Amino acid sequence: MSRDTLSRAEPVTPKQRAPQRRQRRASRTEARNRRAAAGFVLPFLALFGLCFIAPIVYAVHQSLYKTERTGPLGLGGREHEAFAGLANYAHALSDDRFLTGFGRVLLFGAVQIPLMIVLATTLALLLESAGARGITFFRSAFFLPYGVPGVIASILWGFLYVPGISPLVKIADSIGWDVDFLSRGTVLWSIANIVTWQFTGYNMLVLIAQLKAVPGELYEAARIDGATAWQVARHIKLPLIRPALVLTCVFSIIGTLQLFAEPMVLRPLASSIDSGFTPNLHAYSEAFVGNNQHVAAAEAVLLALVACVLSFGFLRLVGGRAKERG
Amino acid sequence: MTRPPVRYRIITASLLTVAAIYFLVPVYWLIVSATKNSADLFGTFGFWFSEHPHPIDHLVDVLTYDHGIYARWFANSVLYAGIGAVCATLLSGAAGYALAKFPFRGREAIFNAVLAGVLIPGTALALPLYFLFSSMGLSNTYWAVLIPSVVSPFGVYLCRIYAAAAVPDSLLEAARIDGAGEARIFGGLGLRLMTPALVTVFLFQFVHIWNNYFLPLVMLSDSDLYPIQLGLTSWTGYADRQPVLYQYTVGGAFLSVVPLMVLMTVLQRYWRTGLTEGSVKS
């Protein structure tokens, strides 16, 4: 997804012969254009400003202030806002639990995203291969979990994880396998399973869409040349679905950093999930349990920054490599 | 076309079947469990029905518990997602149309800001948005969830790309010469030509709002305003003390999943076209 292909400029006004008339006409068209465009864009822009730009500005502002009390020893008295510089950021970055949470989601992403993308690609290639039967059924079955909201999916899998209700634990017990999906060591991967379950089918559909855009003659030609199904997949299909792969990776990275609903819902079931399990959970408890808006704002800003750096960084990385290859 | 050897077809079919089992088993468990009461939930094997399944009675229990609060949550979800997605679609359609069809200064700057908006994680915004809205006295109202839901940068991006390709300039010019106003041209011509993209934006936004948990969680404290997701988690939170809520949570989850899954399956075609529009053309 490179910038210049996204923003395609349009040629506009039809050409006129007489230069004077053209000028007058052009300036009138331009004024008219500007007025009409403003009418169409402004409603969206106003709300975009309120819901995207203003919160960012407000969060940055909040993150630079702190609440002080005028009373003795900082107790009682009236509260007032005082400039704090980068103190809130220092506080957030020196908080071990916040940093551990970051490390945890990065580890999560490094393992879960490749796994999910490989699974989605495999399923897409299998469904698009000549050997598949019952394609409509399988495609719907794989895509179905995307229609289950993250919270419901977590409640569902939570029941499948928790001993006492879970038939999975019961089956494991009966074959003598002592399994605990919610222990300190396993709970992160139990969450990874929920996310994989939910989004593999969606990513698969994106990849299938791109596969369908590949002209059929290309496959036919390769087949006539004697290429095996595996060679066609490896050397023709995979390179061609690269843009879609990049897209799904970027959205997965952004999604992973925001990890919240799954650990939040599983928390009552798993004591191994603390209030700093993910950065988002940490910011949330800082704001609503610790009642510390300013630190929470700093953490939200940090989270948005890391998401931007990672997703732009990833785009640069794959973009650069594509250029090297020509 | 030559058919691949039997060996390949068997391997393909078995891999696909294993994957289908993985994706369908939790849904199957939900269907089975929605017919059980709390005792059977704990006492019987999860992947098979109990001896006395009572699907209808249990679902009625869910709907009538606590003066029908579940129905209210459901209505709230429909309201947030329905109104939010309709408004988001119209706003994105208009903005995308203007960004594609009217050259004006600052157009690229606006478009780049919108693209940046696509990449900003929504939950990183939700907390600051809550601070902002509560300072404006808007938190804990319907507006607190509705207003952010009508803004869809991704929708604008999709509509711009689609309008650039699907709305011919010559047609607009002809309508202008006929004396039609810009608003009428957009309403009569633009919207009609952009319909496939608009359907996709509507679907995306509907599911996005329906699934959104973090925003209502931070914004709302009055349980009368909750969407389903938030309501169900409040039930699981009390289930320790009131075990019957386990049963209601399962029933409620079942009821909330059904309409969306039907929607997904029926409208799969639109998802595909929409995604092609977004990813392949770049």
Comma- or semicolon-separated keywords:
heterodimer; A: 326 residues; mainly alpha; MetI-like fold; two-stranded antiparallel ribbon; 14 helices; 2 strands; 71% helix; flat; B: 282 residues; 78% helix; disordered C terminus; Carbohydrate ABC transporter permease (chain B)
Give the CATH class of chain B.
Mainly Alpha
Estimate the helix proportion of chain B, in percent.
over 70%
H/E element sequence of chain B: HHHHHHHHHHHHHH
Poorly predicted runs of chain B: 274-282
Amount of beta strand of chain B = under 5%
- Enter the CATH topology name of chain B: MetI-like fold
Shape of chain B: globular
N-to-C span of chain B: 32 Å
- The total beta strand count of chain B reads 0
Please summarize the sheet with the most strands of chain A: 2 strands, antiparallel
| Total number of distinct structural domains of chain A | 1
Largest interface in this structure: A-B, 117 and 109 residues
The number of helical segments of chain B is 14
Q: What CATH architecture label of chain A applies?
A: Orthogonal Bundle
- So what's the overall shape of chain A? flat
Task: Please provide a written account of the structure.
The complex is a heterodimer of chains A (326) and B (282). Chain A is mainly α. Chain A has one domain: Orthogonal Bundle (MetI-like fold), CATH 1.10.3720. Chain A is 71% helix and 3% strand. Chain A has a two-stranded antiparallel ribbon. The longest helix of chain A has 45 residues, at 19-63. Chain A is flat. By secondary structure, chain B is an all-alpha fold. Chain B has one domain (54-279): MetI-like fold (Orthogonal Bundle). Chain B contains 14 helices and no strands. Chain B has helices spanning 6-33, 38-43, 55-101, 107-119, 122-135, 142-149, 153-166, 169-177, 182-193, 195-211, 214-219, 228-238, 244-266, 268-279. The model of chain B is unreliable at 274-282 (pLDDT under 50). Chain B: It comes from Streptomyces inhibens. Chain B: Keywords: Cell membrane, Membrane, Transmembrane, Transmembrane helix, Transport. Chain B: This is Carbohydrate ABC transporter permease. Chain B: Residues 74-267 form the ABC transmembrane type-1 domain. Chain B: Belongs to the binding-protein-dependent transport system permease family.
